[in-house]
């Protein structure tokens, strides 16, 4: 055996040993903690593609955290013009078709999943974490991490995190059989000093748009009273995270409750039925989102979320009036 071949074998063996040693030092929860910190506190920018069924959406994101606080701008690169702006004033959806701005601060969702890392026991109760292999996405080295549900009441995720920063560059939403249901992946990406903060500015001046109040009662604030309606039982790990109520006589009853295990989120809507019971009830589905609706006397109860069918049905059947 030549010296050159021997050196190559030794180098390869050392690389394998080094990788094994590095892997042994990596804890899945440490990666998630780093991801959570990076996604909220680092500056990053890029274009990503979101795919669900036949729907494909291309978006560009600019996220900056500095002395001015956290600022973020999402703008659609395909389809109808859309912008989402997040800052210290909350969140605004800029709808380019009818020149309007929709503001609804307390209840918003992100393209990027997050876990309640300060509630380790709750997370461990709902999911198990498994490290995967290495790869490259948008020119960056990444490490994969699987978030596996422990029961049939939630989906799982496969995450790909940039190795140095743990920024999330790709995710897949998967069912219990690990079949992908939706995915997001960056096609170009930059971070730190490479971020162009000029892209935080909206394409159109917000003051020229008309502001549309949220169609949800008390859309600008949360209820301080206890829920008047709520489920008597919930899947393990789900807890009430937000609540608002309107009892105005011109609108009848309206109550909105949000339950989450930190990753999966379910909304419960309780409202007066003004359609005489003619509106459809039962289960419906759009992509990864399931909804379940039923009537109880003159009240319609609707449960909706990016969760399996069993979850919305269980919660919907359990919702009732709270006994004083």
Describe, in short, the structure shown.
The chain has helices spanning 3-24, 28-41, 120-126, 309-318; strands at residues 44-52, 55-66, 69-76, 82-87, 90-95, 100-103, 127-137, 140-149, 156-162, 168-174, 180-191, 210-213, 229-231, 239-246, 254-260, 265-272, 282-286, 289-296, 299-305, 319-321. It is of the alpha+beta class. It folds into 2 domains: 24-212, Clam (outer membrane lipoprotein receptor (LolB), chain A); 216-321, Phosphorylase Kinase, domain 1.
Account of the 3D structure:
- It is a single chain.
- The chain is α+β, with helices and mostly antiparallel strands.
- The protein has two domains: 24-212, Clam (outer membrane lipoprotein receptor (LolB), chain A), CATH 2.50.20; 216-321, Phosphorylase Kinase, domain 1 (2-Layer Sandwich).
- It is built from four helices and 20 strands.
- The strands form three sheets. The protein has a twelve-stranded mixed sheet. It has a six-stranded antiparallel sheet with strand order 14-15-16-19-18-17, with helices on one face. Strands 13-20 form a two-stranded antiparallel sheet.
- The termini are far apart.
